[in-house]
Structure to design on (605 residues):
């Protein structure tokens, strides 16, 4: 007879697992939790990163803000004309927006622009009239209630129902106001704007015209390109990445304890390994047995953990993973992470969990292969 | 695996520490023969079986299987060699947390082929040693004699080309001995090399060997 097909070996390994159901259950649950936790954090950060990138790409090519000794300052409304005359600029759009304090923390308020009015009309919604506020789906908790906002002035508004969940990401967590309300709240005069959203003909021109654009204004301005906006997002992502690393520490410690227990458990079966070698099992057979036994527990656990992480992050309406793992205080927008990227993230986590687990399982078999079967048998369970 | 002859040449095995030294005249174990190894405790019967099984390497001389020097093979090749060897160890070690039939199945597990014929071979081997009733019992619950029969069934199950039995009757009632040795003779009759080591007079009487080799007393303690 010759060797090879793992069918009987697989049954033998599964029988091994079934003989110790409690141990298999504990190991499987621990691996599933570890996978779900790690994959959940990774998917959240990747989804957030993809969302920010999408947001930046959908935004203007350049943003012009006025600066003075006190920091940001309002731009005069005629700045639109100044920017429009710069060679390479295809459009310059005034924006009125800023931060305001609400009952549960700071929110971003925006005056409804022409583009946003079109977006709202496409959703069958009217633009807010003075005294009315529209809230994005991320701020649904503020909807359908009186809303008091404080910035340069205090404004009492009437919030309508939240915008639909599939609204553009730029409107996800903002409060939309009529331009007059927004100006009153932010302390802007009718002839003032917060900043300018400038578009250029080609992405390559973004950095090329910043100097000309800045020189077009008779006061100091800061021009931010898309690349710089992405850089700011990357900086935030790096900060969160550090947080993730800290959070994965206990999880990795847990994995280490599991591995130690697995190696010790397998090592305690040295006499059995010696006996199997005496019966003609090769080193390869013993390694395969250990790998199959470990995989029978770990593969389903990793699949369950990965699926749980996927569902927790990508199921619309579920908000607790972001709050629990990354401390987000408002519901995130629906993630649009490409399946390939998410699959890669899950595969990376599965590899990080399975590889040490399977190596820990195979290690005693490899060590036994270096020992004489007679010695293993004589050595008993030592 | 088919085998025409297993032979030893200038075989010696010495053990450091206790002064044990086995020397065996050149011997041929032919296929289809049953050889009885006798001798007092410590004479080297178990050591010779372990040498033939590839568990030990000789300190001098060699063991040849159809002219191939088994004793010079690497550990991996000796693992493969043991696939064709059915070995009943003296103290009948078993996988303690498994059932009797699973212990008999153990040498068949890594072999190719479907599981059903392997299970049939297990049933046949248990029947050959009159132990079908033990199949589903955990080996921890078995008596010494029952454990030995399970271990013998395990040696028979792969239909090995070489069957090496170390004291196969040591823990058995008189009534069971003929059946156990009949199983050994059946292996011989299908062409296996069968070597039985025993110093049990009951086994010597019932084995009906083709050849008998008597090993001398060893200077050291029992091996």
């Amino acid at each position: 007879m010759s060797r090879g097909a793992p069918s009987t070996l697989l049954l033998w390994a599964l029988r091994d697992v079934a003989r110790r159901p409690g141990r298999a259950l504990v190991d499987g649950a621990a691996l599933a939790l570890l996978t779900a936790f790690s994959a959940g954090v990774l998917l959240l950060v990747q989804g957030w990163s993809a969302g920010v990138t999408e947001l930046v790409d959908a935004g203007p090519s350049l943003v012009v803000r006025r600066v003075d000794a006190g920091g940001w300052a309002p731009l005069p409304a005629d700045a639109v004309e100044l920017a429009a005359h710069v060679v390479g600029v295809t459009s310059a759009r005034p924006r009125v927006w800023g931060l305001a304090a609400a009952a549960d923390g700071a929110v971003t308020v925006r005056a409804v622009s022409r583009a946003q009015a079109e977006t709202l009309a496409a959703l069958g919604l009217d633009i807010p009239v003075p005294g009315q506020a529209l809230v994005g789906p991320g701020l649904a908790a503020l909807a359908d209630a009186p809303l008091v906002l404080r910035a340069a002035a205090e404004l009492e508004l009437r919030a309508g129902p939240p915008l639909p969940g599939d609204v553009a990401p730029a409107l996800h967590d903002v409060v939309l106001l009529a331009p007059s309300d927004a100006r009153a709240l932010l302390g802007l005069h009718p002839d003032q704007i917060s900043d300018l959203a400038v578009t250029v003909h080609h992405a390559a021109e973004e950095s090329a015209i910043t100097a000309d654009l800045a020189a077009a204004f008779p006061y100091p301005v800061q021009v931010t390109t898309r690349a710089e906006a992405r850089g700011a997002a990357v900086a935030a992502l790096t900060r969160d990445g550090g947080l993730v690393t800290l959070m994965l520490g206990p999880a990795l410690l847990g994995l280490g304890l599991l591995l130690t227990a697995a190696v010790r458990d397998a090592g305690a079966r040295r006499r059995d390994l010696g006996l199997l070698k005496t019966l003609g099992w090769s080193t390869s057979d013993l390694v395969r047995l250990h790998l199959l036994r470990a995989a029978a527990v770990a593969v389903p656990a990793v699949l369950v953990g990965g699926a749980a992480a996927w569902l927790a992050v990508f199921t619309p309406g579920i908000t607790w993973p972001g709050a629990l793992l990354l401390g987000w205080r408002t519901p995130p927008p629906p993630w649009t992470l490409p399946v390939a990227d998410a699959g890669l993230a899950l595969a990376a986590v599965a590899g990080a969990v399975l590889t040490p687990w399977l190596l820990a399982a195979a290690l005693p078999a490899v060590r036994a292969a270096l020992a004489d079967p007679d010695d293993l048998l004589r050595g008993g369970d030592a | 695996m088919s085998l025409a002859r297993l032979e030893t040449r200038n075989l010696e095995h010495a053990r450091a520490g206790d002064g044990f030294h086995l020397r065996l005249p050149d011997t041929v174990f032919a296929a289809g023969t049953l050889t009885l190894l006798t001798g007092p405790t410590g004479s080297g019967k178990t050591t010779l079986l372990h040498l033939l099984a590839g568990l030990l390497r000789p300190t001098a001389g060699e063991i040849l299987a159809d002219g191939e020097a088994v004793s010079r093979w690497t550990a991996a090749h000796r693992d493969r060699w043991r696939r064709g060897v059915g070995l009943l160890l003296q103290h009948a070690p078993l996988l303690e947390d498994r059932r009797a039939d699973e212990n008999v199945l153990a040498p068949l597990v890594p072999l190719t082929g479907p599981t059903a014929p392997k299970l049939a071979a297990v049933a046949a081997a248990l029947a050959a040693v009159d132990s079908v009733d033990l199949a589903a019992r955990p080996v921890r619950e078995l008596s010494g004699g029952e454990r030995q029969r399970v271990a013998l069934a395990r040696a028979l199950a792969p239909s090995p080309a070489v069957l090496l039995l170390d004291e196969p009757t040591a823990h058995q009632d008189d009534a069971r001995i003929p059946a156990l040795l009949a199983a050994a003779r059946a292996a011989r009759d299908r062409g296996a090399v069968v070597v039985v080591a025993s110093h049990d007079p009951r086994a010597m009487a019932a084995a009906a060997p083709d050849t008998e080799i008597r090993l001398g007393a060893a200077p050291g303690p029992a091996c």
Notes: Chain B touches chain A through 35 residues (CB under 8 Å).
